[in-house]
Each structure stands twice: as structure tokens, then as C-alpha cells.
Amino acid sequence: MHLFPRSDAARRPWVIRTFSQQVEPPVVLTDLKNTGAFVCGNWISSTAKLVDGGNLEQALDYFNEPQGHPSNVYIDRHTLLGVLKACGKQKYIACGQRSHGVLIKYGHAIDCLTGRALVYMYGKCGLLMEAQYVLDKVPSRNVSLWTCLIGAYADHGHARKALDCMKRMKLDGLLPNSVSFICILKACGDIRASHECLRIHCEIVKLGFEEDVFVGSALVDAYSKSFYLLEAQKVVDVLPYIDSVILTPLLVSYGERGLSEKAFNCWKRILKEEIYLDVVTLKCSVKACGSTRSLEWGREVHIEIVKRGLEINLAVCNTLVDMYAKCGSLTEAEVLFHGLPVKDVVSWNILLHGYCEHDLGYKVYNCLEQMRRLGVPPTTVTFVCCLTTCETLKVGQEMHLEVNKLGIESNKYVVSALVDMYVKFGLFTEALKGLDELTDRNIVSWTALIGGYAEHSLGEEAMHFFSKMISKGIPVDVVTFYCSLKVCGDKSALSRGQELHAFIVSEGFERDPYIGSMLVEMYATCGFLRDAEEVFYRLLAPTVASWTSLIVGYAKNGLTVEALNSADTMQLQGLPMNAISYACSLRVCANAGVLNQGLKLYTRLVREGFERDCLIGKALVDFYAKCGLLLEAQNVFDKLPSISSVLWTVLMTGHACRGENLQIFELFRRTEEQGIEADKVTFLSLLTACSHAGLVDEGLYYFAYMYRGYGIAPSMDHLNCIVDVYSRAGQFERLSFLLEKMPFQPDLSTWHIILCMCRKWGDVVLGRHAFESALLLGENPHLASLLMFSICMEADLRGYV
């Protein structure tokens, strides 16, 4: 029995079109064959349904079959366009090209409707030249057709071509619609074309689309990707309706920029306005917590995830493990990880990466051993993490053998990690061998080698390979420039840094926040603060790192006011200070003796939860000690988990400044009891204390112990302390003997010490000798002249000076 009587042939096209939506295509097609009336439009409609369902090979077979019955074919263009749409959706180019051929064969005009279907199909399949060709052949194009091509270029990463299409569309006298704006804004966001975003935003306002939620969402996304966050926020504020799709890109960008407070405000707004939280928004919120190291916020998001029953979602849980690891709460990361009902290799790699970030090499290898026992196959990411934290050369070589056994030794990321590992241990020959064996020498492996040389302060070698990389035509990226700039941080390498800066400008990287920060640091370290400021103020959006580099530069060059003003401006602009910027600002206050400003900084950092940070703790000890608050310094000192010899010395110096000599000797005794290695600065504090207290024998003991006990050769500063010890005690014979036997020529400080002694003891003859010797050095004579004048005044020899 047939579905259709042979006498109803006229009704078949409509009936089949309707019925084919309810009956499986092969049934309809079989019935059509049996009736002997081939209704091609319906045949193609069924083909479209097969394509839409993913039955691609079967669809092409059915599509080819009517070609053998040309006398009975009826063409229905509408259903043929449906096939093109289905082929585009499934990226099935063979069937799509066959449809295009049918259109041409039966003389259908390529108008806007047909052209759009073809552009859509070719665009989705990635054949952009064919899509462009079809559009160019349409005699009278409309906005929908142009928008389809703009969207195709944007989807495949050809942002500049998408922008060119928009310009050509306007030359056709056509104005963009909301979909056009959405497509072009995606292209602008992908290449961070901030100026184009601003221009398009003006057009959106002019054409009255500024309150369109979908256009607004695309605009927020484009601004967020371009880090124009103030503009993005303004767009959000004027939209009549917001949802998680609009706020999520802004939240992510705030997180990437380290703007924890603004990111958290986005999150609070989502909760306050009861916006639906989907998996994507929750994952992005967790990532923002990790990026900003906001542990408390991360815990709050975790609670929301549990409330919505998403704690069983492996992708969400993996993101949570990553967040806890980045925030330094490895215990919580481990608890969550071990509680996962199912763990994939991504879960293991995230935990490995967390250990890697905190330089816990032993935990990395314990984790790797567990993976082996459980039969979890390691990936390239696994080996990269393990090689990065390799603590011994032997372990690194064993990992290299395992990599070879698994046949991934030619993977560019693994090779780069191997190069990095060998360079870390100073085995540059092995590193170069690994690079030579790599057939595809990529940017990652070259950068690893340059970075290795930079870490070992081998600037010439690093720049040699940088030049070699450029000569081979290998493109450089932000990381390559970052590694190369690390070897340009002193005055001797400044000319090299300036050449590199010129190349960075020519490549368009100068405004990158990471490169900008390194350039600011380079110029500031070398004392070229005007150049540092010029680079800084050219940055599109200075980051916390950029501001910190500028603050450090001011501090190193003694510009206290500028450093503290920069710290204040940074916070006024909504950028949170990090541990480094706080520590640097505290050191500025310590060196300048600005107690009130330092106490304000302390209040702020406690409020932001930095008081337990080791770097902050060390800076606080230095600040309190130099400001004379030794009890507070001792309290912070006692709470630190690990104390270096530098901190002991800072505390000793603080006591020395207040003349508390017994405390200095007691602190030194404690350092020796705890097995802490004293350094030359420690002994300088001890010798200073001896000279101020007039302890000659103790001073000579520590001077001798410095070399015999610790192998520290005395510097000019140490010798000047002994000169001061003898001078204060009035032991002229010992002083003369020391000046004759010193391994260094006396410097200006030496003669100033002796002049002070001569003034105290009234020795005009030695004073004259010291004064004349100071003048011969050709340095600043003012203090020497003043001291000699005082000696002569007290000895009633006013005519001498």
C-alpha cells in the first residue's frame, strides 16, 4: 500500500513537505520512488532533515539519486535553501556544494535570499573566499547578506576583513542593523580593537541601538576583552535589562586585571538582582576568584555551586580545585580533589599545576606516582609541570627517558620544558641539543632558552639567541620580550635595552601591560625616571604591576614623595595594591622616616588581609626598626614563619641606631644558635655597635671572626668601622698601623672619621693630613672643610682654613 494514490500527484509536494516532518525520510523517499513521480523539492526537504540529524553520508546518497531521473524532476527552491542551511549548520561542504550546483544547473538567480543561504553555508564550512565570491556576484545586496559575511569572517578570526566588509556595506548605502553590530563587535573584541569599539559605539548610539540588550551585551564583551572596563561598565549601567551573559565578560575582565573589588561587586550585583546563575557564570566567577587570589569570595561562590547541586559537575569542581590552589589554600584544594567521585587527567593536572605554582616539587612527584598507580595516563601538561618543578638533575633525566618511551619527545611544549629544565641546572649544551633535535623550532622552545640565559644573568648569550630567533623569522611574543628585557636591568645593559625597546615599539607591543611594566622597571632601575614615566603614561590601562614598577623606581632613586603619591593614585583609580607594592611603600616610609604614612599603610594592608604575608612581614620589621618602634618590630619578627639573616640584621641595625648594643649582641647569639648564616651586613651592624660603644676588643674580635668563622672578606665599610673604633678610643698608634696595612686605599668616609676624631682629641697635625688626603680624592670637599675649620677654631688656628 502506498502513502499517496497515483491520481493525487498534484497534491504530493504539499503533503510530502508536511508529512516528511513526521515520517522518517527513508519511508517518504521509498514511497516517492514507488509512485514514479519524483518531486525533487520534497526529496531535498528529506535530505535536509537527514543532514540536520547528522546522517551526512546517507543524505548525500539520497541527494545524488534523483539526478538519474531528469525527466520527472520538479525543483522547489525553498526546500533547497533548507538543505543549504542544514549543510552549513553541520559543516557538510560536499552536500552544500552539490546544492549550489543544482541551483546553477536549473538557472536559479543568485539573489539576496539565495546568496545569503550560500554565504552562510560556505562561511560555516570555513570557505571564506567562496563566500566572498558569492556575495560579490549578487547584483543588489542587502544588510542581511552583508551581515552574514561579516559574521563568517568574525567567527573564523578574520577581524580585519570583517571590518572591511562593514566599510563596503556602508559604501553600498546600507546602514548596519543590530545583528551587524553584534557580529562586528565580536571581531573587535577578538583583536582588542579598542578604538574601533569606541567608533562603533558612537554609531550604535547614533542609530538608536544603545538600549538593545543583545547589542549592549556584545559591546560589553568587546570592551571587556579590550580592557576598556570603564566604558563597559557605563554600557551595563544604561541597559534596561541585564543578565549573566552581560555581566560575566565584565566580571572575567576585572578578574584578569586583578581588580578584585570590582569583580566582587559584579558578583554581588548578580546575587542582589537575583540573576540566574548558569554553569558558565559560576565557572567564570571561580576563575575570577583565582585570578584575584580572593579566597573568601571563592568560598562564597563554592557555597552557591553546592546550593545549585553543581558540585557533581566535574568541570566546575576542576575549576574550584584550581581556584583554591591559586589562592594558596592547597589543603582545601586537596580535600576537594580527593572528594571527587570521578577524576580525569585534567583534575590531576590542575592539582599538579597548583603544586608547581607553589614550588612544591616533592608533592608534584608524589602526585605523579599516584597517577601511575591508578593507571591515569600522563599528558604533555603532566610532564611540563613535573619538569618545571624538577629539584634534581637526576630526576629530570629520568623524566626525559620516560618522555622518550612515550614518544612525546618531539612535542614542542615538552621540548621547551626539557630545555628549561636543563638550562635551570646550567647545562646549556644539553638544552641546545634538545633545541637542535626539534624539527619545528617554535617560539616556546626559543623563549625557554632565552629565559634560561636570563635567569643565569647571561645577558650576551640571551640577546644572541634573541637575535638568532629574529633572523630565522620566528615570531616573538610577550613572553619572549619579557625574558629578553630581564637582562637589560642595569646601566651597563641599558643601550641593549633601548634597542630592544625600539624593536618592541615596531612590533606593536609597547602598550602591552606586562611589557610596559618591564620597560618601566628597566628605565627606573637604571635611574632614567623620565623615560620610565613616558612608557608608563603611554600604557592604555596601567596594571598593578606597572604601578608597582614605577613605585619601586621612585623608591630606589630616593623620590619618597613621588613613590607615596603613586601608591595613593593607584588606589584612587581602583587598582588594589599587592604584597610587592605594599612592601615597597613601607620601605619608602622606613627610609624616609615617615611614621604616620607607614601606619596608614599598615591599617590598609591589615584590612585587605596581607598582614600574614612574609614579604609584608619583612617590610614591617624594617619599617618599625628604622622608625625606632623596636617593640613592634620584635612582635612582627617573632610571628614570621621563616626568618632570613637579612631580617636579623634589620633588627640589629634598629637597635644599633638607638645605641642598644647589648640587644645587638644577644640577637647575634640567637642567630648562631638557630644556625642562621650571618652575612657582611650583619657584621657591619656588630662592628657599628662596637664602635659606638667604644668596645675595642669586642670590635676586633668580631672583625677577625667575620673572616675566620664565616669566610667573609672585609670590605671598606668594615675597615672604616675599625678606624672608628680606634678613633673613638684615641688609639692613634693602632690607627696609623691600620692605615698603612689596609688592603684598600682610604676613602672619603675614612678621612671624615679621622677628622671627627682629631676634632675630639684636638690633634691638628693628623687633622691637616686627613684634610689634605680628603681633598686629593677630588670628591665633595665641603664636609672635610667644615670639620677642619672646627678643628682650627678650637685650636685657635683660624688662619689655616
UniProtKB/TrEMBL annotation:
* Position of the signal peptide: none
Keywords in alphabetical order: Repeat
Domain of life per record: Eukaryota
Spans of the PPR repeats?
142-176, 344-378, 442-476, 543-577
InterPro entries from the xrefs?
Answer: PPR_At4g14850-like_plant, PPR_rpt, TPR-like_helical_dom_sf
PROSITE patterns in UniProt: PPR
Q: Name one GO molecular function term.
A: RNA binding
| Repeat recorded as keyword | yes
The Gene Ontology biological process terms listed for this entry are: RNA modification; system development
List the NCBIfam families hit by this protein, alphabetically: PPR (TIGR00756)
The protein's matches in PANTHER family, at most eight in alphabetical order, are given as: PENTATRICOPEPTIDE REPEAT-CONTAINING PROTEIN
**Name this protein carries in UniProt:** Pentatricopeptide repeat-containing protein
